[in-house]
Each structure stands twice: as structure tokens, then as C-alpha cells.
Amino acid sequence: MRRGTKIALIIAAIVVAVLLVLGIGLFSYVTGTYNALVRMDEGVKTAWAQVENQLQRRMNLIPNYVETVKGYAKHEREVFIEVTNARAKVGGSVTPSQKIAASNELTAALSRLLLVVERYPDLKANQNFIRLQDELAGTENRIAVERMRYNEAVRGYNVYIRRFPNSIVAGIFGFTRAPLFEAPEEAKKPPKVQF
């Protein structure tokens, strides 16, 4: 074999080896990134399922709560309708974004219902109502905890898919940003206190 042919074969072998190493490295990176995206996406879905469990718990408590208040506050029909409609929206929501918006609407309606309760001292002394109030408060706390956990999972996931070059792999495989569960606008405003 001629010397020039030997050098050409050695260079070709080196190029093939480098391309093979680069290909294996790229494949390993894409596979690792994809698997991390799947793991994080499942983490977000699991956290959302926990939020939904607590939202369902609240949905189950609301009818009893409303019926108890209705017995005392017969003239507050608009508030009862608002709570009932908001509850129906939560039940009819499919996507996390829809459920977040509907849940925030329900939270606002429940706040208005609590204002109605303040006008009826006999109701606040009713043992059944007190028990329901405690259960609802506990459920609201559970929702807050699960919402925080969900938002932490979403934040980590969203940051990961937005980082370069992870964003390329995420785009190729169709991973998109997950919505945060933010407080409703009404909750962001400070309450008015009157003396």
C-alpha cells in the first residue's frame, strides 16, 4: 500500500471515530434530557393530581356548607347562586388552566359567602356549621400546601425546558410549559378594614 493511501485511511478512520463518538454523545444527551423531561412532566402531573384531590374534597363540602347557611340566610340568594355556579365550573373544567381559573372563581365566591355568614350570629353558633367551617378551613389549607408543591414542580419543569439546549429537545418532543396555580386577583388586593 502506498504511503498516501495509508494516511488517507488513517484520517478517514479518525474522522469516523470522532463522528461516532459525537453521535454517541449526542444520542446520550438527547436520551438523558428526554428522560429528565418525562420524569419532571410526571412530577408536575402527580402534583396536579394532589391539587385535584383537595379541590374535590372542597367540592364535596360546599353543598353541605351552602345548605347550612341557606337555613339562616334565606335572603342571600345571589351569593348561593354564585357559589353553585362557580362549583359547577370547577366540576366541568378539563385542563389545569381551566381548573385553576374556575377554582379561583370558586374561592372568590366562597369569600363572599363568608361575608354573608358574618351577618348571622346564630349561624356562627350552630355546631354543624362550626364543624363544616373547620373542615372547609382545613381543606383550604391542604389546597394551599398542594398548590405550593404543584407550583414548585412546575417551576422546576418550566425552567428545565426553557434552558438551552434542553429547549431544543423539549421542542422536538412536544414538551410545553405548564401553568402555575396563581392566586386570584381578588386575593392579591389587601382587604378593606373599617372601624
Task: Outline the structure in words.
With 195 residues, the protein is mainly α. The chain has a single domain (3-175), classed as Up-down Bundle (de novo design (two linked rop proteins)). It has 7 helices and no strands. It has helices at residues 3-72, 77-92, 96-118, 121-125, 127-162, 166-173, 185-188. The model has no long low-confidence stretch (mean pLDDT 84).
Number of helices: 7
Would you tell me the structural class of the helices and strands? mainly alpha
Largest sheet: none
Q: What is the CATH first-level class name?
A: Mainly Alpha
Order of helices and strands: HHHHHHH
Query: What's the number of extended β-strand segments?
Result: 0
Strand content: under 5%
Low-confidence stretches: none
In CATH, the homologous superfamily goes by the name: LemA-like domain
Shape: rod-shaped
Structurally, the number of domains stands at: 1
Helix content: over 70%
Which radius of gyration do the C-alpha atoms yield?
Answer: 28 Å
CATH architecture: Up-down Bundle
State the distance separating the first and last CA atoms. 102 Å
Question: How confident is the prediction overall: mean pLDDT?
Answer: 84
CATH topology: de novo design (two linked rop proteins)
